[in-house]
Amino acid sequence: MIRTSQLTYRYPNGPTLAFPDVEVPQGTVLLLSGPSGCGKSTWLALAAALMAPSAGQLTVAEQSLDALKNVAADAWRARTIGFLPQKMQLSPALSVQQNLALAQWASGQPEDLQRIESALRTLGVQALARRKPAQLSGGQAQRVALARAVLLEPRVILADEPTASLDDQAAADAVGLLLATAHKHAATLVIATHDARVATLIPSAANGQVGFQSLRLARHSQPSGTMLK
Ligand code: ADP
Ligand code: MG
pTM for the whole thing? Predict the structure, then answer.
């Protein structure tokens, strides 16, 4: 479950973003849409406790994020959140398998090669375990990033622009994969995107199996703070 109330984030040298309240029951899907610059990535960073709100309340997977500070936030995030950043951020020098092992290490868990293999198998990329990211196609890299995001069985999956630069078929595959993966883990899924195709892809990919709601953010009207250049 994710619940926000009067959530606001003020960039020190940028805009103040005020987000509409939302409540996303556990295991359902939220589409966070709106034009570029409206604050979608900021919302995801707040939900992942990567940044603290300037005002308002935010509860994610039964945890009130007000109460979380630095180290506790890192441990909570590793346990709870599967983050699929806009740039997939696979480490180029490491193999696919090592990239997933790094995620286990970062969460403080012992390396578990069996679990890594099983996550890669679920996404159909187990044969690529020894490859480096540069040796993967875009679609393969996306599956690997998703395997990494769900490796620790997160309660919440946050995906930032997962269909950016994909053609229609690949975009449908990516959305289908995200929904199926979230459904398998009974995870709450948030897809942040300015891609209008996603709103039509989710209902068919969800196939009536999960609840789905949409939150459209408006472009912030009044950039506060002065740009000194
Ligand atoms: P979206 O993901 O919807 O494109 P973002 O959350 O990335 O939007 O950004 C929302 C707004 O905040 C934009 O106006 C952007 O320029 C501004 N912004 C983002 N990051 C920073 C930052 N580090 N400092 C100042 N302003 C920022
Ligand atoms: Mg963004």
Answer: 0.90
